[in-house]
Structures
1.
Amino acid sequence: MKTAYLGLGSNLGDRRGRLVDALHELVVDPAISIVRGSSVYESTPVGVLNQPDFLNLVVQVETEYQPLALLDACLAVEARLGRERRERWGPRTIDLDVLAYAQMPWDDERLILPHPRMHERGFVLTPLAEIAPEFQLNGESVQILAARVGTEGLRPVLSWGELSALVGQRKRWADAS
Ligand code: GSY
């Protein structure tokens, strides 16, 4: 089993509902266990600015998947949730990014680890610092990087406890139907 970090985001439609659905998909995957999650942050868009605000969070998972299989599992979740993305940096119903896989670097045409832009993104670093402040990225701790980038444009809107309760309800509903 390896520890990995996944970033989740949504800025189209029922954003919180899509995050709950995506986490439920991870929960029912026997090769993935969610160990902890951050609060959910509403965040102003980075990159293409003229799009709706995102909801973002980060989860720590234990997984039997190797990095590319974990990427495929994330892409499969996006596909099952009917991901819509009209342009590369534009709005999307659901986004699951593999941010890091243990301390293992990876670099091929499908996946670069750690995620090449995460060290400059507050919407990744602030939630990641909640759950893994000492995690090392390019020789610096997430806590230091998060403090440097700051929290401008980020508003905590839901705790991990509240979100995981919604995921539990979603699972009970799925199990009963
Ligand atoms: O892969 C990240 C998608 N994305 C986001 C995001 O998730 N949150 C914010 N705040 N801005 C973003 N820009 C892009 S692209």
2.
Amino acid sequence: MNKILEEVGPSDTIAITGHERPDGDCIGACMGLYLYLLKALPDASVDLYLEKPAPAFANVPRIDEIKTACDADLCYDVCIVVDSAADRIGGARKYFDTAKKTINIDHHISNASGCGKINYINPKASSASELVYELMDEDRIDVQTARMIYMGIAHDTGVFSYSNTTPHTMEIAAKLISYGFDFSGLLNETLYEKTYLQTQILGRALLESFRFLDGKCIVSIMDQKTMNFYQAGPKDLEGIVSQLRTIKGVECAIFLYQTGQQEYKASLRSNKKVDVAAVASYFGGGGHVRAAGCTMRGTCYDCINNLALHIEKQLKETEKQ
Ligand code: 5GP
Ligand code: MN
């Protein structure tokens, strides 16, 4: 794919969107691209559609320019889907379906072929933000764009600690911090800081977790009743599964939270041996080798048993090698 400014026209109408329940990478990549295009193409009309970001992002500059409703029946010249395939973009799907040109920028292995007419997909990239950066002309990047791209990369790499971090990732990050924004404060606010409620729920989820498969697998379940008790939503549950993954001896961590009668959202994380993207894809979800998710039907025990079968099979295969 050419640089993004070669793919969109100077006075095009452009829609940008990303996945449901947008995380730091999705927000950073979409916002970074949005601010970049607005500045580079003053005659274009650019709209960014995302679900409302978690409160941790509330103070990010210009975050309130995100459109959370997709009521207008518009037909865009270009629709750019970032950090996702078209099946997880919610109400913005209609803009993707009617756009004259579609572009997909993603790093999910479960979306290896891309959903756009033009695709920029690299499952080895640390983040969608890294890919968006590669499509920009360096001399057009300003501090606002740099801040958003940095935020996205830092979120999806666990602040440069996960195995998806490459020398190239670090080189980009080095260039970005040279723009001179408060990266430490940005990460504190959007990533590290938790509300008291989030911390209480994390504590509860850890207390109620249990291990199986000789301690190689750990699971915690949050039912609707408990979420109601704490008045918690999905945005308050982020970070629980990552914490479970850090426990000594654990190869695979599962966090399930109830989304309906006999329906659970599963978040999966792995250390070295389990390809959780393969497990999640089997159940209709997707993601990365070390972090993936899916929505499952049945009781929570059905969900765990079904996931455990696939995880155990993979563990046995790697132990044979
Ligand atoms: P999380 O567990 O944090 O919700 O998601 C982990 C990773 O898997 C993220 O990259 C996310 O985009 C992806 N993911 C989570 N749930 C789904 C799903 O239902 N379908 C697909 N395709 N990807 C998912
Ligand atoms: Mn991502």
